[in-house]
């Protein structure tokens, strides 16, 4: 029966190794018989077969990798991305290549054993298990899976869910619930907040699952759990499913079907519309602003069961707030976003980016003034909210005029406290159900 190519090649390789040993023996025979006898005695004791040589090579690589990973203490920031791992394995590959060049010196053509001798050597039976390989060494040969430390899992899942963003999203939902003209129902409030938070965690996890190849190219996102391989895609998607299903179920059956429908629609809008659109058109920011505007509307519908003018006003405030928030942020990330291959206004339409941010800062003043007109708040609200709305508009103007890193960062960080404060003022000036004023100036 013809030998399979694998057997043939391993026999030839064995023959080649045997040939080298043969060459060494011949050379030492002529040079120093005593040394030769010593080597011969040793060589006989540990006849190095092809397997042993190969096993030693693998052991060496494993040891090398282990020593490499032991030497490199992962820093919290920045941590090697898979590409760096490839480089280190590339280094390992270099070492192996070098190690391969340490194999017995190449034979001079004149002394190379002739084919007959190689075939004779090839016929030497390969002794399986010539070396006693301990259990531990056997395990060394297996590739090691990246094991998640259970204590790290909460932090990893928090980063996967963009927990700070989710926290502010849930606070806008709570504000919508509290602002709605309906009696405050605590169980319903808690179910709405929990359901929205779970839906947001699911949406952000799926968003990161889709964006791994692009996030790995951006400094801001290259240390995310999926990019760093801290968590498997399967676990990330399973986590997203375990958040989405109970989240939407809580909103639909624990609160009302309208709120549940808004929740699942928002997950779809964020993961299947906004996320792919980021790489296609600058319109992604307008779609993303709708995604961010829906959570407070969900809070309102959870409390009232209906979608009315007040809900749309609140959604409008969140919609406008996101333009200074994101356009300012993205200004400082233009190189990063272009490296990631995203279509962002700050990269392709810089003047539009600044203009839209300023326009929506001013829109916040208009929307705040509309609140008492739509009976959402008292007339105290547009007055007491004017200072913070004027301040964010001033920063928006600075960003429009200066168009530099400093003005963009000031506007972004202002947006992070402006929204919670504006929501607080909305609550303090809420108009009570039945029309009587709460927090109104004394008549
Ligand atoms: C068009 C919509 C939005 C876009 C494009 C956007 C984009 C971003 C980006 C890129 C960051 C930086 C995250 C990072 O450092 O990796 C960020 C931070 C943040 N965003 Fe937004 N965002 C939007 C809407 C919202 C909404 C609706 C909220 C909450 C209501 C929000 C809350 C936050 C918070 C709290 C941070 C700071 C916390 C953090 O650094 O993760 N954002 N946003
Ligand atoms: C109920 C429910 C589903 C709520 C979802 C609310 C939510 C996740 C809003 C985020 C809005 C948004 C566009 C964020 C930026 O994402 P990005 O992908 O541009 O951010 P990145 O670049 O940091 O990944």
UniProtKB/TrEMBL annotation:
Source organism superkingdom: Eukaryota
GO biological process terms held by the UniProt record: aerobic respiration; copper ion homeostasis; heme A biosynthetic process; leukocyte differentiation; mitochondrial fission; multicellular organism growth; respiratory chain complex IV assembly
Catalytic activity: heme b + (2E,6E)-farnesyl diphosphate + H2O = Fe(II)-heme o + diphosphate
EC id: 2.5.1.-
Keywords: Heme biosynthesis, Membrane, Mitochondrion, Transferase, Transit peptide, Transmembrane, Transmembrane helix
Pfam families: UbiA (PF01040)
Membrane topology: Multi-pass membrane protein
Gene Ontology, cellular component aspect: cytochrome complex; cytosol; mitochondrial matrix; mitochondrial membrane; nucleolus
Localisation per UniProt entry: Mitochondrion membrane
TM segment ranges: 258-277, 284-303, 309-331, 352-373, 379-399
Chief site of localization: mitochondrion
One Gene Ontology molecular-function label: geranylgeranyl diphosphate synthase activity
Biased composition (Low complexity): 101-110
Region named Disordered: 71-111
Role description: Converts protoheme IX and farnesyl diphosphate to heme O.
Protein family: Belongs to the ubiA prenyltransferase family.
Protein name: Protoheme IX farnesyltransferase, mitochondrial
Organism: Jaculus jaculus
The encoding gene: LOC101602722
């Amino acid at each position: 029966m013809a030998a399979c190519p694998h057997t043939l090649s391993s026999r030839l390789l064995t023959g080649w190794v045997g040939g080298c040993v043969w060459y060494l023996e011949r050379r030492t025979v002529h040079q120093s018989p005593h040394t030769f006898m010593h080597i011969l005695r040793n060589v006989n004791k540990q006849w190095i077969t092809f397997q042993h040589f190969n096993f030693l090579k693998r052991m060496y690589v494993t040891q090398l990798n282990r020593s490499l990973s032991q030497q490199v203490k992962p820093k919290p920031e920045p941590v090697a991305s898979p590409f760096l791992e490839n480089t280190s394995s590339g280094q390992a590959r270099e070492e192996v290549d070098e190690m391969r060049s340490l194999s017995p010196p190449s034979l001079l053509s004149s002394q190379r054993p002739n084919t007959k001798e190689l075939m004779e050597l090839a016929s030497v039976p390969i002794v399986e298990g010539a070396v006693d390989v301990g259990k531990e060494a056997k395990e060394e040969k297996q590739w090691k899976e990246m094991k998640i430390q259970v204590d790290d899992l909460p932090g990893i899942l928090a980063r996967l869910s963009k927990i700070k963003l989710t926290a502010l999203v849930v606070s806008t939902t709570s504000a919508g619930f509290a602002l709605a003209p309906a009696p405050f129902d605590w169980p319903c409030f808690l179910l709405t907040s929990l359901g929205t938070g779970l839906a947001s965690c699911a949406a952000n996890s799926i968003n990161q699952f889709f964006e791994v190849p692009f996030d790995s190219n951006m400094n801001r996102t290259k240390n995310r759990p999926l990019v760093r391989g801290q968590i498997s895609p399967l676990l990330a998607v399973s986590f997203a499913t375990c958040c989405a299903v109970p989240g939407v179920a809580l909103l639909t059956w624990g609160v009302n079907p309208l709120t549940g429908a808004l929740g699942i629609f928002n997950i779809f809008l964020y993961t299947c519309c906004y996320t792919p659109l980021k790489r296609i058109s600058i319109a992604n920011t307008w779609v993303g602003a709708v995604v961010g505007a829906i959570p407070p509307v969900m809070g309102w519908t959870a409390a009232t069961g209906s979608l009315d003018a007040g809900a749309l006003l609140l959604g409008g405030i969140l919609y406008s707030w996101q333009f200074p928030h994101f356009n300012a942020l993205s200004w400082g990330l233009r190189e990063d976003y272009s490296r990631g291959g995203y279509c962002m206004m700050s990269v392709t339409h810089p003047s539009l980016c600044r203009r839209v941010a300023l326009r929506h800062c001013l829109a916040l003043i208009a929307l705040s003034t509309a609140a008492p007109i739509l009976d959402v708040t008292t007339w105290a609200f547009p007055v007491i909210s004017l200072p913070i709305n004027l301040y964010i508009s001033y920063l928006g103007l600075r960003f429009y005029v200066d168009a530099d890193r400093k003005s963009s960062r000031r506007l972004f960080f202002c947006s992070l406290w402006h929204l919670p404060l504006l929501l607080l003022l909305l609550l303090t000036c809420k108009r009570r159900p039945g029309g009587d004023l709460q927090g109104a100036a004394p008549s």
